């Protein structure tokens, strides 16, 4: 629901960008396969992943993906074949987003946000790793200096290598239908989630919006 809301708001807040929203299956095989097909077909300038976490109380900005999979069955009841996301891949890959600016912007808006160095060992981490690995290959092929993530710096956007992941709570504050204890502990409501999500998209795309 949040991704659909962000896609509807994007034309007004992100002029010049075509936004494609997709929900990936929580499956070890199908998730990365569909992601790879989307990246090949769309050749996106920016890829921003969102996922839910029962531990999150607000926005959680991931800073890296690890080449690690926990022995946990997916939505189809399948377990990973091994403990690596990509055989012989780097132990970890850094996200290619201005994470510091994202945290600064959200805090100025009074939104709950924190930085994370551990995206877990399930599909969120695996999808992020695959996405970053694809961006890394594209970056190495260009031979161009990597974006430093500064204000107005859109080199990463032009190269199509800006990728990152944001965790949100699995139950938002004030959730209908009995959100339970997690909804009561959550510091992020629906309107805040939409506004914060759009703000993150703006910074990921290199759009400097007025507050």
The number of helices is 7
CATH architecture verdict: 3-Layer(aba) Sandwich
Q: Quickly count the domains.
A: 1
Task: Output the structural class.
Answer: alpha/beta
Oligomer: single chain
Low-confidence runs (pLDDT<50, min 5 residues)? 145-152
Instruction: Write the CATH fold name.
Output: Aminopeptidase
Roughly how many Å apart are the termini? 25 Å
Proportion of beta-strand residues: 5-15%
Tell me the total number of β-strands: 6
Largest sheet: 4 strands, mixed
Can you identify the CATH class?
Answer: Alpha Beta
| Overall geometry | globular
* Mean pLDDT over the full residue set: 89
Radius of gyration from the alpha-carbon trace, in angstroms? 17 Å
The proportion of residues forming helix, as a percent range, comes to: 25-40%
Furnish the topology, listing elements before pairings.
Blueprint: H1 2-13, H2 30-42, E1 46-53, E2 59-62, E3 64-66, E4 92-94, H3 99-108, E5 113-116, H4 123-142, H5 155-159, E6 162-169, H6 180-185, H7 190-204
Parallel strand pairs: 1-6, 2-5
Antiparallel strand pairs: 2-6, 3-4
Helix pairs in contact: 1-7, 2-4, 3-7
């Amino acid at each position: 629901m949040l991704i659909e809301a962000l896609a509807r708001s994007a034309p007004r807040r992100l002029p010049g960008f075509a936004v494609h929203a997709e929900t990936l299956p929580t499956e070890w095989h199908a998730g990365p396969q569909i992601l790879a097909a989307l990246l090949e077909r769309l050749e996106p300038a920016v890829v921003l992943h969102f996922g839910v976490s029962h531990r999150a109380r607000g926005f959680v900005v991931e800073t890296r993906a690890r080449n690690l999979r926990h022995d946990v069955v997916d939505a189809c009841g399948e377990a990973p074949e091994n403990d690596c996301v990509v055989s012989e891949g780097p132990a970890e890959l850094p996200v290619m987003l201005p994470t510091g600016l994202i945290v600064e912007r959200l805090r100025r808006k009074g939104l709950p946000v924190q930085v994370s160095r551990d995206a877990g060992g399930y599909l969120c981490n695996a999808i992020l790793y695959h996405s970053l690995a694809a961006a890394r290959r594209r970056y190495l092929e260009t031979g161009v200096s990597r974006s430093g993530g500064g204000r107005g710096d859109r080199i990463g956007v032009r190269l199509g290598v800006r990728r990152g992941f944001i965790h949100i709570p699995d139950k938002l504050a004030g959730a209908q239908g009995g959100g339970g204890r997690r909804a009561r502990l959550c510091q992020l409501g629906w309107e805040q989630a939409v506004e914060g999500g759009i703000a993150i998209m703006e910074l990921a795309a290199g759009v400097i919006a007025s507050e």
